[in-house]
Amino acid sequence: MKRHSIGILGVSTVALFAAAVLGSGAAQAQTTQLERTPKTVTLTANLAELNGSGASGTATATVRNQKIKHIEVHASGLTPDAPHAQHIHYGNQALNECPTIALDRNGDGRLNTVEGIPAYGPVVVSLTTTGDTSPASFLDVTRFPVSESGSYHYSRDNLHITKVAGTGYPGPSGTGTAKEIADSIREGEGVVVIHGVDYNGNGEYDFSRGASELDPNLPAEATDPAACGILE
Ligand SMILES: [Cu+2]
Question: H-helix or E-strand containing 41?
Answer without folding.
Answer: strand 40-49
